[in-house]
Amino acid sequence: MERFWLVLLLVALCALAGYGLYVGWRRRARRQSDIPALPVEPAELGPDLVEPMTGLYISTTSAGNWQDRIVAQGLGRRAAGAARLSAEGICIERDGESDIFVPVGDLVEVTTAPGIAGKVVGMADGVVLVRWSLGAEKLDSGFRADDTDRQIAFIAAATELIAQSRGTETQSKGASS
């Protein structure tokens, strides 16, 4: 009989812990409700600039704060998928979740990191980190690629696209002055 009560107590503690996690997630989403809606993906993206990376979308955090997970707008849910790079920007296609589209004008930097909320790989280049702007917020989205060769090509092409975008912006601002 003593074992029955211990098992029942353990089940109750697990249920209480699960409820606490659920409530915490909901409160975090409420606190982050001022985060603007995600950009709308164009009806048709142009051709891929490099072969898409398959892998795992890990999470999105506030820029530079790898533990401050953003859960609003569905950004906190991990999913397998692919990251595509086109002239319009980066699209992270997530299985079972809505896609995340980052227009080229909102891209700040694409680099690597050893981890992000939800995954620490332990290698300096273990996670592809996409830093981008969403309204006034600066965010980091993490993607763990299946193939490091594709990861290297993706980062190089994205960095070049950002530089071209900045060059075009600078030229157009200079022409209008």
Walkthrough of the structure:
This protein is an alpha+beta fold. The protein has a single domain, classed as Roll (PH-domain like). It is built from 2 helices and 9 strands, in the order αβββββββββα. The N and C termini lie far apart (84 Å).
Keyphrases for this structure?
single chain, about 180 residues, PH-domain like, seven-stranded antiparallel β-sheet, two-stranded antiparallel sheet
What is the approximate shape? elongated
Number of domains: 1
Biggest sheet character: 7 strands, antiparallel
pLDDT averaged residue by residue:
87
CATH architecture term: Roll
Instruction: Provide the β-strand percentage band.
Output: 25-35%
Determine the number of helices (DSSP H or I, runs of at least 4 residues). Answer: 2
- Span of the ends, CA to CA: 84 Å
Q: What order do the helices and strands follow?
A: HEEEEEEEEEH
Please give the number of β-strands.
9
Summarize the structure.
This protein is 33% helix and 32% strand. The chain has 177 residues and is an alpha+beta fold.
Write the layout of secondary structure elements.
Elements: H1 2-31, E1 53-62, E2 79-86, E3 89-94, E4 100-103, E5 107-113, E6 115-116, E7 119-120, E8 127-134, E9 137-145, H2 148-176
Antiparallel strand pairs: 1-2, 1-9, 2-3, 3-4, 5-8, 6-7, 8-9
